[in-house]
Amino acid sequence: MSAGGAAPRPLGERLLEAALVVGLLALLVGARRLFPAAGAGAGTIASVGILLLGGTVLANLLELVGLPHLTGYLLAGVATGPHVLGMVDHQAVADLEPVNQLALSLIALAGGAELRLASLKSGLRSLAWATLWQNLLVLTVLAGVFVAARPLLPFLADVPTAGVVGVALLWGVMAVTRSPSATLGILSQTRAKGPLATFTLNFVMSSDVVVVVLLALVMTIARPLVTPGSSLSLGAFRELGVEVLGSISLGTTLGLFLVAYLRLLKDRALVLVLVALGLVFTQLFDYLQFDWLLIFMTAGFIVQNLSKQGGPFVSSIESMGEVVYVVFFGVAGAHLDLPVLRVLWPVALLFVVSRGLTSWVAGRVASHFAQDAPALRRWGWAGLVSQAGLALGISANIQSEFPAFGAGLGALAVATVAMNEMVGPVLFKVALDRCGETAGEAEDVEAGGVAEAFEP
Amino acid sequence: MTALGFLGLLLVASYLGGFLVGGRTGGPRGLASGAGVVLLGFVAGPAVLDLVSSDSLELFSPLVQVGVGWLAMDVGLVFGRVLGRPVRPLSALWGVGVALVCAAGVAGGLVLLLRLVPQLAPEGLTERGRWVLLLGCGAALSETTRSVFRWAAERYGARGPLFARLADLAAGDDLVPVALAAVAAALQPLATRFGPLPLAVDAAVQPLAGWLLGLAAAAMLGRVFQLNVFRGVLLGITLIAIGSSVRLGLSLLAVPFGVGLGLTTPSRHRARVRARAISERFVVLPLMFLAGAMTSVEGPVPWLAAAAVAARLLFKLLSGVGLWAAWPEARPAGPALGAGLASSGALSVAVGLSFALAFPGGVGASVLAASTLAVVVGELVAPPSLRRALRKAGELHEATAEPGVGRAVEAVS
């Protein structure tokens, strides 16, 4: 986090840090040649270390030019990942999946806990109009662009026009997904307070539910278009009902358990309890086919709004915050499929630009109807550009439902999400800065006088 | 038990560890060295109830590696300090001497046993394996845990010149197991493109590499201490050290220990680094539990472990006689003082675990079994003996205990 109002880290120090890390990485790369036993990658344990160290230092360096920490974490992941230096190899990325899930569960808990009923009520009009226009316009316009870009998409060569419309609708659903993790990461770094921060948080967190519903709806419509002969089935909605309502119920139960824990034991060993919940329950809920992201978000929401324990709860999660984000986005960076991006970047760029422009238009229209304040009217769209795991999850879902063209669509989704993942956090940070909501940027500097239990 | 269930169990152990070892009330609770958790792990493990299967234990070996390495880094961080004060160098040297005598005694005892009863040699024992066994058992059984002094201070208000010297001794002897573990790891020479490294160089390079990494980490902290930078750098460097050690077959103790030393070499943020980095309360008890669960009683393992622990007790007693003769402060305590030094704890168990992971089979299993048995036996013998010795020396002040002093430090070793 930034040094904020306290003495900032001098440029020389940050450069020294970066030089040391570069030297260390060079040593590790050299060690692979010097010691044959070292093998190709650094191994899973060292990979986490490399992502943490590289991400922390690069984030500090990029802070100088106003870029968010998330960009540093992502770039560190890209640089050390399988397609550049190869220190964090494919095996390590796969091995880190449980750690990634743990990170995401903590991010979802934090996200839910940041949603306050009072702010949701006061911003309900803005949220409702934005949800309507953002989803409607982005879905339809991006679907239209997809149809128009058909000649550029080789995997659609043999698909009839009706099928292309069906695939385009699915693409539209992917386009309306946002990244709660990126939003929370930026807010955690900047500790931004104000209408834009509140609106973006409320919108992005609630969009998770909206996207799940939209996906079921569009899947129902798209299936007969893409697979001629199949009939319109509403079975997906029954499954959806079970999934969403079940997840909310489970999340509420989990939230009440956390409230009881906090009441009885305060925040004692809470970090450990949260890690245990994250590790064990993500696997369990996944197995039971519930949306664990929604479960953790609901649990956080319950703790914040149905008890007085929200403060210590959020502080406990924030104490792990930076480390969680470094690992999560570092792994995401290492996961970026650069060869695919290299091939598909022109088409991906077309979709990224179209999506950004449509979000901007939708933001202006929604603000007009909601009579938003000028800052929100101008920058409300900027926090909605980031995409990450949710979009890729939907893409994977589509791939399994429609294997005939799924692989091509999946590659295009990876390329597009990669670009949005890089651009989105920067845009959001710029918007928050411009709106003056990052004025009290987080101070994480210790001013001496640390309690030293063993050096009295 | 499934891997998931086992993970849950470990987290519960860790949770309890948070309460027992680092409870906020700071009151003196629990046992002096965590032997109860070792026994619990042993009972739950494949050797007794098999609630925790061998497959589950194998699945979690990366967690054990990280735990052992982290603990070693913690030991490096607090090396040179005890009970919240700097260790006096001369007493620390005594600690090194006593630990070396015990390590040599344990190794000698095992050599004798294997010569008298060759059938007790683990199957397929090579010459290198024999050296690893001797060094491993010597390393695991050489030190005296510092937690027993913290325990005595908190529960019985122990203080005085003898108590201080003994605490210094227990703080200084941490160096011996780490060094012996490095030598054992170097017995499998590190192959480079230019040929294998000589043993001495290989052994010395391990803590040195860690120390340089620690120094680099300290340099990265800069002049202004930022918590997020500190966390990223500390975790990053330590995990790189642990991961590289695993990858290259280096000692899981020596390299991270060097990192801890290096981190606290520059004086700028030393106190903050120590205060913020010590996290043993969540590490020690899960490691103890795992060590108990991984302890094997197959073949000659229990015999070798029992012989090693018997030798340790004998040489601790002999060392005690030496201290009684050499230290004027020790005279009132009597010649049986050495029994009070028989406590072993987390560092011994970490040595055992690191050998069990690095040298699978009879050799690693014997070192681990010796380390866990030493913890249990030490728990029975040492605390009452230490109490008796300190009482004779007039250094127990039971009504004036000051809980919390040095708690965070002593549990790590």
Characteristics:
heterodimer, A: 456 residues, Na+/H+ antiporter like fold, 2 domains, disordered C terminus, B: 413 residues, two-stranded antiparallel sheet, 18 helices, 4 strands, 67% helix, 2% strand
Mind sketching the topology for me?
The complex is a heterodimer of chains A (456) and B (413).
Chain A: H1 11-34, H2 44-63, H3 69-80, H4 90-95, H5 97-114, H6 117-122, H7 124-148, H8 161-175, H9 180-190, H10 195-226, H11 235-265, H12 270-287, H13 292-305, H14 310-335, H15 338-370, H16 374-379, H17 389-401, H18 403-434
Helix pairs in contact in A: 1-2, 2-3, 2-14, 3-14, 5-9, 5-12, 5-13, 5-14, 7-8, 7-10, 7-15, 8-10, 8-17, 9-10, 9-14, 9-18, 10-11, 11-13, 13-14, 15-18, 17-18
Chain B: H1 3-22, H2 35-44, H3 54-59, H4 61-78, E1 81-82, E2 85-86, H5 89-116, H6 127-140, H7 147-156, H8 161-172, H9 175-186, E3 191-192, E4 195-196, H10 199-220, H11 227-248, H12 254-263, H13 270-277, H14 284-294, H15 301-326, H16 346-358, H17 362-392, H18 407-410
Antiparallel strand pairs in B: 1-2, 3-4
Helix pairs in contact in B: 1-14, 2-14, 2-17, 4-11, 4-12, 4-14, 4-16, 5-6, 5-8, 5-15, 6-9, 6-16, 6-17, 9-10, 9-16, 10-11, 10-12, 14-16, 14-17, 15-17, 16-17
